[in-house]
Amino acid sequence: MYNFDFKNPVKICFGKGQITKLSKELPANKKILLTYGGGSIFKNGVYDQVKAATQGMDIVEFGGIEPNPHYETLMKAVEVVKNEKIDYLLAVGGGSVLDGTKFIAAAALYEGDDPWDICAKRSEIIVTEALPIGAVITLPATGSEMNGNSVVTRVLTQEKLAFGSTAVMPQFSILDPEVIFSLPDRQVANGVVDAFVHVMEQYLTFPADAPLHDRFAEGILHTLIEEGPKVLADRQNYEAAANFMWSATMALNGLIGMGVPQDWGTHMIGHELTAYHGIDHARTLAIVLPGMMHIRRKEKQDKILQYGERIWNISEGSVDERIDQTIQKTIAFFESVGIKTTLPDYEVPNSTIEKITNRFEERGMKIGEKADIGPKEIQAILEDRL
């Protein structure tokens, strides 16, 4: 296991009725910007709960943050922050709302010429200052409620880029599993697959003699496999909803990635599919991961075999046969929750593969746990999904 430093300061308020705690968690003497998305919080009653819990507080609202939050929209929120002299941000929604709010928090205090550089030049620009954030999560998926990660889409340039900083970690996040009761199948399925692949990016690399972290990761995968279908079958199943929600948080709060190699290549390729075609984030991951496993089977062999045996009970056959079975089991799981896994399923033309490989070529970057996946490998991964 590698050396590591781990600190997660986010306070989690988990369970039924926890939104009422907002009045205790939010600062009473601050001007707060309430951010949210397209309006689902009005339909499921969360908005009313939030307003009731913050009665008497100085709150300005900013809605309309998109799935895969748009830089252009977020910069309008930054203007509101500056004009209204906002002190604190409260994100109410799914991971996209919180990701967008993290960018707002950083961009509002950014002193450079172009706030997009926070994402575009993330290796050079380290965010050390941001407005404080609180969150009420309405969709389990991204784990953004307990980490400092954010992903933002710039429509003008068809780019989807990320940044990370401890400065944008929420001070608190409220997780009430009952918000899942009103979610459509599509969002639940996306959340299950998103969380699943978050675990895989930190687990499916190469052995690092970290058995505890492997078991943590495998426990989350097993729980998602068991509980995700229960939520889809019965949206009123509180226990299944709670287990699903907590699994999504644990998948990306930093714990299972400590001391072990991490990949994130599937995400980086998937981001390009969203940038060019607007495909749901989780669905891009379901497309790319099987190709990643197939093309990188030698480099990831030991962990694929371990994953196949411990998660899918695959222990017989040659190495290649077991790897093939493991990939097929993964695909079958994604498709069992309603998520397709090939490029043609989403009407992605072959020309997109060239666009994506060219983009990685232009950026001069290689990805993966060993930084050895370049444009040729990315092309092969995508062509595997045709």
Question: Secondary-structure map with pairings?
Answer:
Blueprint: E1 11-14, H1 22-25, E2 31-35, H2 40-43, H3 46-53, E3 58-62, H4 71-84, E4 88-93, H5 95-107, H6 117-120, E5 133-137, E6 149-154, E7 159-164, E8 172-175, H7 185-203, H8 211-233, H9 238-251, H10 265-277, H11 281-295, H12 301-312, H13 319-336, H14 351-363, H15 375-383
Can you give a write-up of this model?
- The model has no long low-confidence stretch (mean pLDDT about 95).
- With about 375 residues, the chain is of the alpha/beta class.
- A hairpin with a 4-residue loop joins strand 6 (about 150-155) and strand 7.
- It has a 6-stranded parallel beta sheet with strand order 1-8-5-4-2-3, with helices on both faces.
- Helices cover about 45% and strands about 10% of the residues.
- The longest helix has 23 residues, at about 210-235.
- It starts with 10 loop residues before the first strand and ends with a helix.
- It contains 15 helices and 8 strands.
- The chain has helices at about 20-25, 40-45, 45-55, 70-85, 95-105, 115-120, 185-205, 210-235, 240-250, 265-275, 280-295, 300-310, 320-335, 350-365, 375-385, and strands spanning about 10-15, 30-35, 60, 90-95, 135, 150-155, 160-165, 170-175.
